Amino acid sequence: MKIGVVTFPGSLDDADARRAAAVAGAEAVALWHGDADLHGVDAVVLPGGFSYGDYLRAGAISRFAPVMETIIKKAGEGLPVLGICNGFQVLCESHLLPGALIKNHHRKFICKDQPLRIENNRTAWTSDYDANHEITIVLKNQDGSFVADEATLDRLEGEGRVVARYLDENPNGSYRDIAGITNERGNVVGLMPHPEHCVETLTGPTTDGLGFFTSVLKAVVAS
Description:
Blueprint: E1 2-7, H1 14-24, E2 27-32, E3 43-46, H2 66-76, E4 81-84, H3 86-93, E5 100-102, E6 110-118, E7 133-141, E8 145-147, H4 150-158, E9 162-166, E10 178-182, E11 188-191, H5 210-222
Parallel strand pairs: 1-2, 1-3, 3-4, 4-11
Antiparallel strand pairs: 5-8, 6-7, 6-9, 9-10, 10-11
Helix pairs in contact: 1-5
């Protein structure tokens, strides 16, 4: 199975995401932002970084990349898509997910090992976790505060579309401690923390992030 990882100008964690896909047992495929062809991949990761330097607004320019036109179309047809950090911002700017990501409430860049609770394990990217499974993965962001109007937040809560929630403390001011959400179908997930940095004991505080990548392989087999 093939997991494609998009590189935008300013992506920082594309190589890490490809490594995580390989550790999970997939073939990692590098996708270029300017190429609309997904080259037959079974799932796509939009990685972390500062695409286009976060000019205008984080993720706002990447949303119009040729590759995103195809991803938006294919996501509507069920293609699993995971947006991590900047990738989450791109998903919101593309309207594949509701809400927006804005500056952290303390206006500072943050980098820490962050406890999370997986609240929805029925998505293409979280099925390898137990419901309410508590994990610790790396968090690093400057525009990581998830915001939405009350009606949208209530809908996300009521439909069980909050995928992950911050534990212990809210590190960036995200409304209702939300760290990740999914679309209605469960194939598109946006996550602010970085599971790709937590797949091997050598480089991460845990290997708790690996489940995101093994989950999607099972989802592809089941589809």
